[in-house]
Amino acid sequence: MQGDYDKAVGAADDALRTEANATLLKRWQQDAPKGRTVYGTYIQRTSITPASDVVGKTLDFGTTFDLTATGTAVGYSVPSTEPRQTALKNLAGNASPGNQISTGDAAKLEAVTGPTVDANGVHWRVRVSSIQYARTALLTSAIAGRSFDDAKRIAEERGFKVVQIVATPGWLPRMPLLDSRIAITIGEPTITASGS
Questions:
Q1: pTM for the whole thing?
Q2: Which residue among 66, 69, 120, 150 is least crowded, i.e. fewest CB within 10 A of its CB?
């Protein structure tokens, strides 16, 4: 009889998780604010019918017995940009000094395992890759106020391939004096970086 009780206790956590996923998790996901995703559920059993109430007792209904289990269900609300945001931040931290990584279409994220939930939060195992290039902020300050030919030469000396310079308005003879008025669009990679 103790073995039957132990088996029933072992199934209690699964039963609690199934119930929490069917009721609470769905509601939490529907009620999540825009830009947030809810993952769950982590179940912590708080009480269960003690063995002394069942083991060694005469059963009222033949060979079955009932256990009452209660627990706490935990779901985690995280920004919908995860795990991509954190993976790219970690990859950027490994970029060569003076470089940055592209966080746009060039950045690729591949899930190695799906999200898992435990008492410490939501965990993902992912592989991320992107292109790495010289920081554009340093380039914009270097080409501010320069002629278009000088700007192209300076950019190429720093590892950039200049495809096009668009002046707005079109009659400008040189790059704007304020580097904040210069927009640089990154195209093909010159250096690649990856990490997991």
A1: 0.60
A2: 120
